[in-house]
Amino acid sequence: MIGFIGIGIMGSRMSGRLLDAGHELIVYNRTQSKTAALIKKGALSADSPKDVGARANIVFTMLADPQAVDAVAYGNNGLLAGMKQGALWIDSSTISPTQSVKLANDAKHDGFRFLDAPVAGSTGPAEKGELIFFVGGESRDLEDARPLLSIMGKEIHHKGQNGAGTAMKLVNNLMLGQTVAAFSEALAFGESLGLDKADVIKSLFAGPTAAPILHFKESKLMKEDFENADFKVNSIYKDMELASEEAYKHGFALPLSNSVKAMYGLCQQQGKGDYDFATIYDFLKKK
Fold it and tell me: What GO molecular-function term can you cite, just one (predicted)?
């Protein structure tokens, strides 16, 4: 039995692939209505994270923020209170390496195994099983998880011990936030000079500077339709804040990242926290 906790934008697609592949699945989400589609397709419903842990041998969590992970993990109805001895917990949430190490140590203390396995990729890759997993933890535990990760992803990068997978995710999302912001600023600058937006995008895509994420955001930038989010401003701001906090702990400065993070924070202040993070283009463009 596979457990999955966190049936949001990403978790619903990831768990759906496991179910479609024929795995017996038990699911839990704080807002129970979000599990309805999976249950209709044959998944079992759990009453609590503890219930998932008691019934599954491998449990995935895909949660919004560090506080949500702790809320699921701890307490009388928490995941750690119910997991079987030797069971494997795979956390795909984006949290700090420090928190991942603590979760791993607490799990091991109680006789469970733990992998931090956050992902690169948003809704499209999640639906197609084309995510990239960054994994921290024991190699033998990864081998037990690999068949399931391969259903949801196209690549699995083992980065080292617990916390290393989460560390790589923060590195990835730091660059992700900067990349979309830099492209948005360049596009808005081109328009301010009187250039046609579609032609600016075409020329930038023809050159060496356009990352794959920018092709994925082209439609949103052209239509300026940011309310239907693939990845929210709230999420990129949270991830860049986690990177900033971790950098502080290690005595490392992030001058570019912190400036970009502040711009996403201003988007939040404008009431656009639930918008797609490509809305930073709208924030930057000349009105």
Answer: oxidoreductase activity
Exactly one of 50, 169, 217, 220 is catalytic; name it.
169
What digits encode the pLDDT tens for the residues 6-24? 999 999 999 999 999 999 9
* pLDDT one-digit tens code per residue, 92-127: 999 999 999 999 999 999 999 999 999 999 888 999
Which of these three, 161, 196, 223, is where a domain ends? 161
Rounded to two decimals, the pTM is 0.94
Same domain as 183, residue 127: no
The b-or-e profile of 105-124 (16+ CB within 10 A means b, else e) is eebeeeebbbbbbbbbbbee
- Domain boundary at 161, 187, 204, which? 161
Helices (H), the chain: 11-20, 36-40, 49-55, 66-73, 79-82, 97-109, 123-128, 139-152, 164-192, 197-206, 212-223, 233-249, 255-269, 280-284
Q: Is 169 a catalytic residue?
A: yes
